[in-house]
Design brief:
5-stranded antiparallel β-sheet; alpha+beta; single chain; 46% helix
Length: 174
């Protein structure tokens, strides 16, 4: 049987992980450094796992028309960037993503593709109490791209998708 968690469950878990990450990053609770770093590491690892699961599952179900495609925005993308753009963005990006110079709107589907194809060695983030934006980089063809992805907006948009379990029907011959 082919079974998965619902998108809403995954998005809610990712939302909680993001809140935990932001609280640790801003040290909202005044925790000692070792414990804070441990929390950042665990939240980051779990968040990346869920992002990758969502990227594959949502794209697949859109492809097979199980869920409708959405044009909701979750970030911004620079489809053709230079190495200097990458360095500058990773070091100096500040929200909001929709005002990032030289960037275009990033839809959910495009964001999921960027998650699936991001170079894990070239990423960054911006986080505060209200914002958790990921900066992902990669190469498509011979062009470098940079994507700024709002975890908060991603979770909101995924929670707006129809949420249902996928039940695999057994073949009548089985």
């Amino acid at each position: 049987m082919w079974q998965r968690r619902t998108f809403h469950e995954c998005a809610e878990e990712l939302s909680v992980i993001s809140q935990d990450f932001r609280a640790a990053y801003t040290n909202s609770f005044g925790v000692e450094e070792d414990r804070r770093n441990e929390k950042l590491q665990r939240s980051s690892e779990r968040g990346v796992e869920i992002l990758r699961v969502l990227a594959l599952a949502v794209r697949s179900e859109e492809d097979f028309r199980i869920i409708p495609k959405t044009n909701d925005l979750v970030g911004a993308v620079k489809p053709s960037a230079t190495e200097n753009d990458v360095v500058f963005t990773l070091m100096y990006y500040r929200p909001p993503y929709n005002q990032a110079e030289g960037f275009e709107p990033l839809t959910l589907r495009e964001a999921l593709n960027k998650i699936a194809h991001a170079d894990p060695t070239r990423s960054g983030f911006f986080a505060n109490d209200a914002v958790h934006d990921l900066i992902l980089c990669g190469i498509k063809g011979n062009k470098i791209w940079i994507a700024i992805l709002s975890i908060v907006d991603l979770c909101r948009v995924i929670k707006s998708l129809p949420d249902k379990q996928i039940n695999n029907q057994r073949n009548a011959a089985n």
